[in-house]
Amino acid sequence: MRNWFRKAPAVQDQGTLPALIQYYKKSGDFVHFHNPQTPQPYWISYFGSLIDVEILHRDILPNLHKTDLTSLEAVKAALPFEDVVITSERQKIEDALFRGSVLIQLHETDAACALVRAEMKKSREVTIPEEEYSVVGPKEAFVESITTNLNLIRTRLPISELQVKEYTIGKLSKTKVAVIFIEGIANQENVNTVCQRLENLQFYQILDSSFISQLIEDNSTSLFPQLIDTERPDRVAGALGEGGVVIIVDGSSHVLIGPISITELFNAFEDYFFNWQIASFLRLVRVFAVSFSILITPIYVAVLTYHYQLIPKDLLVTLVSSRRNIPLPPILEAIILELTIELLREAGARLPSKVGQTIGIVGGIVIGTAAVDAGLTSNVLLIIVALAALASFTTPVYRMGNTIRLLRFPFLLMAYLWGLLGIAIAFLFLITHLLRLTSLGRPYLEPIYPPRLKDLKDAFIRLPFSMQSNRPHFLQTKDPNRFPVKKADEVKDIDE
């Protein structure tokens, strides 16, 4: 496991609490004032940008004014909070202040203080999923608050076996990270792998779950995602019930699931809301669409460059007539169109939503028509590239869609160099890479390799729930059974 560490600027060592407060007073949002008008004067300090002022003026200050504060224990008793902490430890004081606590001293030179939590909680409301939207099923999505996200998961799994381990990662960001699993189902080895990698992780700043994903994946140089990031609480609950391990990062609206196999990247959680025939058909359509998106343009280049004898005579006439006035070779023609599609995608993603949709639709029509009229590309290739781009959108996992977009270019280059043989060589390199790839130490190509027929029941096709009594074998769960098979078979309708 690699340690990613960049040394942050060292904070001046402050040995005493008064010296620490003097250092924090350099910041414009740090408040430190003395109130001499109470029965027992006190000093109060806090970061104004981190605390809820309403809590301060409603619950803290009025109670301090009513009480004779002879000691910190009296301060603790006077405040209507259960988690008032009395300490003189510098690290605890520092962490509490930056988490939105109010510091109370009886004398400015005291080394001990009382810490009262009054953090400002700002987070958006739970909304519908944007990247994994489904017509059927729940319409809730994760938000940037780790507390809210834990609530969304626990309401779906109200069991005592659901365990949460919390970590603080990032020398600068001090980001809260939680590892979630179901005790008695999840393989402890998978849990220990995730926890160990998080504990060994040293990085200066964690701003999103994608940082964690890149830092703890088995192969950080691979294009293929080895952890699924999702914004759907129902998918996370389903993964936990299967025996998976989940990672939540405070400040991120996406949650990580692992270990995974490559087949899960083609499965939408919405598949479980349809009957098994429709779900299986949709999964097969996605697999075909991904294969089509990667291979169709390279095959076009290979056939027109080296293997035009393979084209039927009637189709060859159409292709020749469409390329009659094209001055560019097929490889340049294909690359120009592919790059044009990528430019339109990137422009549509970076612009505001309404403008981006207009750019994508109008830009594609205008540029495509102009390119054909100008004789820079053939209308046949334009149709092929458009269909390939459309097929790449069928993947339910966004990161996998980006992988498919990039894979087309090496296949295009190999097709130009050696034709269909080059495509076969590129495919062999791809399969070799996937065979060596793992997710948290588990085989990435399972259940294709190693072949496990039982796991094929919920891979490229989805059989009925009654035939899926076992959890995925590659997760090596403690409890492999979802439900007793015999009892499922004995259930009959009331009229039988």
TrEMBL record:
What keyword terms does UniProt attach to this protein? Membrane, Transmembrane, Transmembrane helix
This chain's protein is named Spore germination protein
The entry assigns this protein to a family as follows: Belongs to the GerABKA family.
Organism name: Neobacillus mesonae
- Coarse class of the primary localization is membrane
Under PANTHER family, the record lists:
LEUCINE ZIPPER PROTEIN 4, SPORE GERMINATION PROTEIN
Q: Does the keyword Iron apply?
A: no
According to the record, the segments passing through the membrane are 284-306, 356-374, 380-399, 411-435
Q: Which GO terms describe its cellular component?
A: plasma membrane
The organism's place on the tree of life at top rank: Bacteria
Q: Does the keyword Transmembrane helix apply?
A: yes
- Could you tell me which Pfam families the record lists for this protein? GerA (PF03323)
- Please give, as recorded in its UniProt entry, the membrane topology of this protein: Multi-pass membrane protein
| Xref: InterPro entries | Spore_Ger, UPF0353/GerABKA_families
Picking any one GO biological process from the record gives: spore germination
UniProt subcellular location: Cell membrane; Membrane
